[in-house]
Amino acid sequence: MVRRALAQLALISLALLTALPAAAQTPAKELFGRQQAGSPHRPHPLGSYSRGCLAGAVPLAETGPTWQAMRLSRNRNWAFPETLTFIDRLSRFAARLPGWNGLYIGDMSQPRGGPMLTGHASHQTGLDIDIWLRPATNLRLTPREREEVSSISLQRSRGAFVNDSWTPAHHELLKAAASDPAVARIFIFPGAKVQMCRDARGDRAWLRKIRPWWGHDTHFHVRLACPRGMSGCVDQDPPPPGDGCDDAVAWANNILNPPPPDPNAPPPRPRRDLTLADLPQECASVLSR
Ligand SMILES: [Zn+2]
């Protein structure tokens, strides 16, 4: 049933793509960045986190019992329905942590997913969520305040260490997120992972999903796995086996003692804008319906 609907979507998309040669040249970020609301399809993440789109996206309620969506003007609080269920689940856990009443939710996806005009390379399929590291104490922020309030940075020495704002509650929150079966990976600055590696007691399996990455000192990024039965949704390869703690220490050491530049390294290739042709065929009809 799902497969047939998907095949129909693909057929329509192919027809659209040939009918609109101009759209084929336009950077996909312009086409997707213009969308104001979700497509009328059944919810379905299509393609991969960095080359995909989202059919039938639903918006996160701007305020829930244990969360607030931030920076509403960006209109990036759209996602796959199970992503919203996850936010509800994790934010309820957060609300029980000392000093927290819930979560401030940053960028998720655009109304039809796809590449963005600014920021993120990923967040294209409604399965990526940025969650603020600033404890959500006040869940009655006005829309205006949600534009003006900023998160806090938890890093020291350019991400090699955590600073004094890091708390055991942050550890518990990240542990709960990483232990959730829906989660594939979490990105955060290296010093945070090193700290969690040091503080973890007992089971360490959850640490595997926590991956050091650049930035991510004011928020952490949760990446959900492709939900069951969603053909055409492309998972990232799983993280390497083990808790990844050695890797995090290596990242932190590289920050503190950067290796000299490799004279034989090829110059970085400029990143080309994705076009519709780079995305799954079905994304053309996600855009046009
Ligand atoms: Zn992110």
Structure description:
With 289 residues, the protein is an alpha+beta fold. The chain has a single domain (2-257, 281-288), classed as Muramoyl-pentapeptide Carboxypeptidase, domain 2 (2-Layer Sandwich), CATH 3.30.1380.10. It contains nine helices and 13 strands. Helix 7 crosses helix 8 (245-256). The chain is globular and about 50 Å long. The chain starts with a helix and ends with a helix. The site of zinc ion (ZN) has 5 residues, from strand 8. Residues 120, 123, 128, 130, 221 line the site of zinc ion.
Task: Give short descriptive properties of this protein.
289 residues, alpha+beta, Muramoyl-pentapeptide Carboxypeptidase, domain 2, 4-stranded mixed sheet, 3-stranded mixed sheet, 9 helices, 31% helix, globular, binds zinc ion
